[in-house]
Specification:
The protein has about 600 residues and is α+β, with helices and mostly antiparallel strands. It has 21 helices and ten strands. The strands form two sheets. Strands 3, 4, 5, 6, 7, 8, 9 and 10 form an eight-stranded mixed beta sheet that branches. It binds flavin-adenine dinucleotide (FAD).
């Protein structure tokens, strides 16, 4: 089944939910116009659908064999990557002074969705390269920027992110890779990193590794970690002391090489410090925050692809006779109410997650581009609040939607032939890398809710309430019970938020930690329902002013479906949050034996 990039939905969500037009009107996006943004998205959509999507299957089957330390990418990948770089796509969000186009994170997020909808294994590479650009442009010395940025911005060299070690996954304090100062001001890196995405490949002739390591006199824990740039090929053209020792055999994303990297077999890999000594984690987090949003966008991408495939199958496959069907013998399964519900759930979760990711991207743009420091601070805090929600919810629904996609296919979904199974296999990593979703939920409740004494989250809830007010004013029958259901979800979120803020400030972290994951889901359901209502209100206004786009009634119907059947879960999630740690107290009993 072929993938068609959902350009129109992406553009609509950007413009009417995430506020692209408003940001342009506020002068934040330079020369960008809504028409130009749509033209860029359309072009990206063509490349994703026509050039990248056909790689998805071949990548899954072929994998990335490692021989004598070298990895061969699957057939066709090198050529498409080259064409993608030459078309300037890697440079889209990069800094103008280093050859980038300086376009917004919001616009790039739409493109990232399409690269990843076409192939998750293809799309993850550039996410890391763009992250390396971000970390280097913010924290690199002028010499490092001069030497590396132009090539990485262009995508002629790729970037990696080296945090994980066998004993240091979620807990980076346990990191052991060593860095020693050399007399010439460089460093020698020694140690092993595991699970390094695109640590080795043959797409480009150099790979720039960003590596976390510890100096001999570094304080223990996360305050003693420094960040180093370690190129595969040194500036004089000789190979650095780094090699790929093995690759993982994984459940999914087979065409994304996941490498064990060994540094310093021959005395130490040459590295250059990025930022200050012992401040490496903060620098790496610059890279990780955007990467976390991008992983959320990957969830949207795979969900969209799984939905497209399931819908096409459901229109073809005939079984039984649906109630009220005009068919004389059998109906297409899409006519059966239960299959329709599955398909609508897939579409609604995808649309809500897309909206959540794009409003986060817009907040990131405002945090960087607003002229007013107060506005920048508020946007920065909003982006910080929304990032873990976008990452975790969108990646969770990536898995859920891909699983529903298999369900819609019946037995044919479980066999590899249809390709539906690949989406689920590929999606499964998204809830784990870039910080597991459990860690995202903990970050949300312990670090993000308390921002500005709780004012940041309160402002977000107030914005959701404003949408309810607009819905009530509209009072169009097509919206059904959207307003009361959305209001109920927001009130559940409000109460759960008060509980969490109290638990965190009263230093009762176990209560907060016990309910963090249901709280994150509750937040996402309320925000998702509000954002889909924003989309539906915009669609309604456009339709009322004579715009005959048939997608407008569909947007209203989807918003209603989400509010009436998905957001209704908010109340149950609130109960789970309020149960606090007490519910876990019997856990030792339940887990015993
Ligand atoms: C395909 C793939 C690609 C990857 N790419 C990269 C990469 O490019 N660079 C890189 O550096 N790493 C990469 N990783 C590593 C990835 O980021 C880690 O696997 C992830 O951070 C989780 O660490 P872990 O596997 O050690 O799990 P653990 O940290 O052992 O976690 C196991 C479980 O315990 C939970 N847990 C752990 N600590 C806590 C806590 N304090 N509170 C509550 N729950 C907790 C986790 O949520 C999880 O459910 C990749 C991994 C894979 C599989």
């Amino acid at each position: 089944m072929t993938y068609r990039a959902p350009v129109a939905e992406i553009a609509f969500t950007m413009r009417h939910v995430a506020g692209l037009d408003r940001a342009i009107a506020d002068g934040l996006y330079g020369d960008l116009t809504p028409d130009l943004a749509e033209a860029i998205l359309a072009e990206a959509g063509r490349f994703a659908s026509d050039a990248i999507a056909p790689l998805n299957r071949v990548g899954d089957r072929h994998g990335t064999p490692l021989r004598d330390g070298a990895i061969t990418m699957p057939p066709g990948w090198k050529e498409v990557y080259r064409a993608w770089v030459e078309a300037g796509w890697n440079a889209l969000p990069g800094p103008v002074e280093h050859g980038g186009q300086g376009l917004p994170v919001l616009l790039n997020s739409g493109c990232v969705e399409m690269w990843n909808g076409a192939s998750l294994a293809f799309g993850i590479g550039p996410i890391l390269t763009m992250g390396a650009v971000e970390a280097l442009s913010r924290h690199g010395s002028p010499e490092l920027k001069e030497r590396y940025l132009a090539k990485i911005v262009a995508g002629e060299w790729t970037g990696t992110m080296n945090l994980t070690e066998p004993q240091a996954g979620s807990d980076l304090a346990a990191l052991r890779t060593r860095a020693e100062r050399a007399p010439d001001g460089t460093y020698r890196i020694t140690g092993a990193k595991i699970f390094i995405t695109y640590g080795e490949h043959d797409l480009t002739d150099n790979i720039v590794h960003l590596v976390l390591a510890r100096l001999p006199d570094a304080p223990a824990g996360t305050r003693g970690i420094s960040l180093f740039l370690v190129p595969k090929v040194l500036p004089d053209g000789t190979p650095n002391d780094v090699r790929c020792a093995s690759i993982e055999h994984k459940l999914g994303i087979h065409a994304s090489p996941t490498c064990t990297m060994v540094y310093g077999d021959r005395g130490g890999a040459v590295g250059w410090l990025v930022g200050e000594e012992n401040r490496g984690l903060a620098c790496m987090f610059t890279m990780m925050n955007n990467a976390r949003l991008a992983v959320g966008v990957q969830g949207v991408a795979v969900a969209e692809r799984a939905y497209q495939q399931a819908l096409a199958y459901a229109k073809e496959r005939r079984q039984g006779r649906a109630p009220g069907s005009a068919a004389t013998e059998t109906s297409a399964i899409v006519e059966h109410p239960d299959v329709r519900r599955n398909l609508l759930t897939m579409k609604a979760l995808t649309a809500a997650a897309r909206a959540l990711c794009f409003i986060t991207a817009e907040a990131i743009d405002r945090a960087h581009r607003s002229p007013d420091p107060e506005a920048r601070k508020a946007a920065h805090e909003r982006a910080s609040l929304l990032t873990p929600v976008a990452k975790a919810f969108a990646s969770d629904i990536g898995v859920e939607v891909a699983s529903l996609g298999i369900q819609v296919h019946g037995g044919m979904g479980f066999v590899e032939e249809t390709g539906a199974a690949q989406h689920l296999r590929d999606a499964r990593i998204l809830t784990i890398y870039e910080g597991t979703n459990g860690i995202q939920a903990i970050d949300l409740v312990t670090r993000k809710l308390p921002l500005s004494g709780g004012e940041t989250v309160r402002a977000q809830i107030a914005a959701m309430r404003a949408t309810v007010t607009r819905l009530v004013k509209e009072a169009t029958p097509a919206f059904g019970q959207t307003a009361p259901r959305l209001r109920a979800a927001i009130e559940s979120l409000d109460r759960a938020t008060s509980y969490m803020l109290k638990a965190v400030s009263a230093n009762a972290p176990t209560d907060a930690l016990a309910g963090a994951t249901p709280y994150l889901r509750l937040f996402a359901l309320a925000q998702g329902a509000a954002s889909l209502a924003d989309a539906a209100l915009a669609a309604n206004a456009l339709a009322s002013s004579g715009d005959t786009d048939p997608a407008h009634p569909a947007r209203i119907a989807l918003c209603r479906f989400f509010a009436e059947t998905v957001a209704t879960g908010a109340e149950g999630l609130e109960a789970s949050v309020l149960a606090g740690a007490g519910t876990l107290e019997s856990a030792p009993l339940a887990l015993a034996g």
